[in-house]
Amino acid sequence: MISDVYISGAQATLLILMIFLLALSILFKKARWYPVIVLFLIAVECIHFIHKKQIANQQTGLISSVKGATVINFINGQHAVLLLDKGEGRSPDPGDLGYAFSNFWIKHGVSPPVLSLDSLDHSICNGLEIPGLYCRPSWRGNNVLITFNEKRLILLRDNRFYRFHSMQPLQSDLILITNDLSVNPERIAQEIQFKMIIISGSVKKSRIKQWKRECEKSNLAFYVIPEQGAFRMPQNK
Predict the structure, then answer these.
(1) What single string gives the DSSP state of each residue in the chain?
(2) How far apart are CA 157 and CA 135, in angstroms?
(3) Is the pLDDT of residue 182 over 90?
(4) Is the predicted pLDDT of residue 236 greater than 70, yes or no?
(5) What is the C-alpha to C-alpha distance for residues 199 and 178, in angstroms, rounded to an integer?
């Protein structure tokens, strides 16, 4: 790993071998090794070209937690953004985020701006230059509706959500539970047809146990980030 440059294990191995052969050829004056060195260099460039193509076509949504805050990375090609919900605790500073995600960002070739969900409004959402990303803040209270590459994610941050009643349930792939949202998965299921509930690290441990117990009772699929690690959103094939 070089600063802001991602080198894969294969590239690193080829570079080391190439430098070793170059040193030997200079030391022992073996010009016949030069073609082999050129082949190594071509192999490194081919791997680099493949990696750049992968970056151009990448589509990644990663939901995680840092210092008790909810953090979502959205990446499409070389466009990216980080959405931060600090919850009720201290908001992670740039150093915390860099420590947690620097390798991830370098690997994906991005350096995303950080946007707080508390400051998110329609003008900011409309200004996001990320293909396939749509967000709707202040949805049914202080909740957020996000669509990324045809996958819908609903962030429930506010108990005002429970005051709304729909004639037909809204369709969503994922529900993200944050902060101190009241534990009522059955009520959520009445309003939203979803595939999985994700419980963020901003939820207190005692409340996580309640969510797990109620989800199991209602036979609802769930994923707990503090226990299972970051959640990578499924992508369309």
Answers:
(1) -BTTB---HHHHHHHHHHHHHHHHHHHHT-GGGHHHHHHHHHHHHHHHHHHHHHHHH-EEEEEEEETTEEEEEEEETTEEEEEEE-TTSPPPPHHHHHHHHHHHHHHHT----EEEGGG--HHHHHT---TTEEEEEEETTTEEEEEETTEEEEEE--GGGGG---SSPEE-SEEEE-TT----HHHHHHHEE-SEEEE-TTS-HHHHHHHHHHHHHTT--EEEHHHH--EEPP---
(2) 15
(3) yes
(4) no
(5) 7
Amino acid at 64: S
- Residue 89 has a pLDDT of 65
Domain borders along the chain are 9-56, 58-229
